[in-house]
Design brief:
By secondary structure, this protein is mainly alpha-helical. The chain has 2 domains: 67 residues, Arc Repressor Mutant, subunit A, CATH 1.10.10; 42 residues. Helices cover 59% and strands 6% of the residues. Strands 1-2 form a two-stranded antiparallel ribbon.
Length: 125
């Protein structure tokens, strides 16, 4: 699984890692009991600090999506994909709401926002 970090994004780097790992679990790219990269190797691969990847893993562990085995690393937990998907949708709706408010403040019409969304969606496939 490849994690893509956007340094100019609105989300913190650890949040980007968390969101992409959650998405990989929901879509089946990562399976229950599958080993994750070590904190150090992921930090090196992404060219971010160990503290950032540690924070992402701690967040995922706190949510029960991954677990650690002393001396062995982190693994994907057994999970309820419907529940996880619902949480993901709630988070996306919140972010969309914030973006829509920004669009309205910028004077964009609904049609402009819809067209912008279509273009960006196609570009990111």
């Amino acid at each position: 699984m490849k994690i893509n970090i956007k340094t100019q994004g609105t989300l913190a780097i650890y949040e980007q890692i968390v969101n992409q790992l959650k998405n990989a679990i929901v879509t089946g790219q990562l399976h229950a009991k599958e080993a994750l990269p070590s904190i150090r190797s992921l930090a090196s691969e992404l060219e971010v600090s160990v503290i950032t990847t540690k924070r992402a893993y701690e967040e995922l562990e706190k949510e029960g999506l991954i677990y650690s085995v002393a001396g062995k690393g982190f693994y994907v937990s057994e999970y309820n994909t419907d529940y996880l998907r619902e949480k993901q949708l709630i988070m996306l709706e919140k972010r969309f709401g914030e973006i829509i408010l920004d669009c309205k403040r910028a004077g964009l019409l609904e049609e402009d926002v819809v067209e912008m969304t279509r273009v960006l969606y196609r570009e990111n496939n």
